[in-house]
Design goal:
This protein is of the alpha+beta class. It contains 13 helices and 13 strands.
């Protein structure tokens, strides 16, 4: 009897330990630092482990339309997943950038006759966006994180020889930090679409552009049903340097060229009096822009938006302070490229929303920014933080701004159509070459 009692006790103890093991797997959604092989990522995992776990708990508590599990392994059957390790939230390195990544399996099964964009869109709306809305606010202040990534597997079912079969399809999205923050804060699909287009999306490792509506796909010239056809140029992924394409032709909505026998278009009057009239016509819009974008734009308080003459045109110029990442180093061209990509480019669409129609009085927008590149002294050096500044001006014509606003032009094409000045001297700025410069 004693032997049977001891055996029963051991059996019960084993069951309790097994249940405890399962509860640990279920409650902990983040990898432990010891499981992260990269030493840099391991240090970050340890430093922010509690925040990762807190976000994981919210994800676990969220109710999805179909079961979702964080998982270190994709493409599992649900019965396998329930017994598998359910931890995946981690810091990872992707194309030289540090991302906070979530991997998981979503047990929704889509009919194969639903096109890939709509399958991905359903997973994005039901799983990816809710998780980003949890994890981004929790970790958006982590200075080391360049962006966020998610990899989610769902099922696609179809018939093979009259037998219904399911196959896994992996959906991946990668966003830079600012785009992720704007995505989760966006109130309209237009703003969400703008944020999405700054990153990249994949299905089974094949790049494609995720559209949030058929109208958005049609406006971009893509077939919403996923059929083959000409696709418009989309921005390169944020972790790669921008392409240095020549300036694009103006959109069809641009004003037509004058006929051969038509009188020449009179030159823009850029006298002080004329510019003052233009200033008065755009003052209300400028005031609204200052109020709406004050938090993100870093406007210079003592330099209000002013209409200035540049290259025989009238440009509304905004004065900014661009704070570059700590220890951002390189040539003035690299710093100017970083300022455009990380700061100026994000202001263009919100500003352009105030200048719609063909009756806009200005010829373009100017951004005058002081680059503040802070650096922490090396060990043994004198204490304090040194700060270098460069003055950069971007003058961008209105028609090319509209082209960029509608995602028909890249940032490089917009710059090529305008002019860039560094410390008062005009320069050619190739974003790809400048940002790739290690010096």
């Amino acid at each position: 009897m004693e032997f049977l009692g001891l055996s029963t006790l051991k059996s019960k103890l084993g069951v309790l330990l097994f249940l405890l093991f399962l509860s640990v797997l279920a409650s902990g959604q983040a990898l432990t630092p010891a499981e992260v092989k990269n030493p840099v990522m391991r240090a970050l995992q340890e430093r922010y482990f509690q925040q990762l776990q807190s976000a994981g708990e919210e994800i676990r508590a969220h109710v999805f339309p179909f079961p979702f599990y964080c998982s270190r392994v994709l493409d599992l059957q649900q019965a396998q997943q329930e017994r598998a390790d359910q931890r995946s939230i981690r810091f990872d390195s992707y194309q030289g950038k540090t991302v906070i990544e979530v991997t998981g399996n979503y047990f929704a099964s889509y009919p194969a006759d639903i096109d890939k964009n709509h399958r991905a869109l359903s997973t994005f709306q039901d799983v990816v966006l809710p998780i980003l809305q949890i994890i981004v606010p929790e970790l958006q202040d982590v200075p080391e994180a360049d962006g966020f990534a998610m990899e989610v597997s769902h099922q696609v079912r179809g018939k093979v020889l009259r037998t219904t079969r399911e196959n896994a399809e992996n959906f991946v999205i990668v966003l830079n930090h600012d785009a992720a923050v704007r995505l989760v804060k966006a109130r309209t699909d237009r703003d969400r679409q703008a944020a999405l287009l700054e990153g990249q999306t994949f299905l089974n490792a094949e790049h494609f552009t995720l559209y949030l509506s058929d109208a958005a796909a049609q406006a971009a010239g893509d077939d919403p049903k996923g059929a083959s056809g000409a696709r418009k140029q989309t921005p390169r992924p944020w972790w790669q340097a921008r392409e240095s394409d020549p300036a694009p032709p103006l959109r069809s909505s641009a004003r037509p060229a004058p006929e051969a026998d038509a009188p020449p278009t009179p030159a823009r009057d850029t006298s002080k009096e004329a510019l003052a009239k233009v200033q008065a016509s755009v003052q209300e819009s400028a005031d609204k822009i200052l109020k709406e974008l004050e938090a993100q734009a870093e406007f210079v308080s003592y330099a209000p938006p002013t209409v200035v003459a540049f290259r025989k045109g009238a440009y509304l110029e905004f004065s900014l302070n661009s704070k570059l990442p700590v220890n951002a180093t390189g040539s003035r061209y690299k710093l100017a490229a970083l300022a455009f990509d990380d700061h100026v480019a994000h202001l263009i669409r919100p500003i352009m929303a105030h200048f719609q129609g063909n009756d806009v009085e200005i010829d373009g927008i100017g951004f005058s920014t002081n680059l503040h590149a802070s650096s922490v002294p090396a060990a043994g050096a004198k204490a304090g933080v040194s700060e270098a500044t460069e003055a950069v001006e971007f003058f961008l014509p209105m028609e090319s701004l509209r082209c960029y606003e509608s995602f028909d032009c890249t940032g490089q094409q917009l710059i090529n159509a305008g002019a860039v000045l560094i410390n008062g001297e005009r320069v050619s700025l190739d974003l790809q070459t400048a940002e790739a410069d290690p010096h």
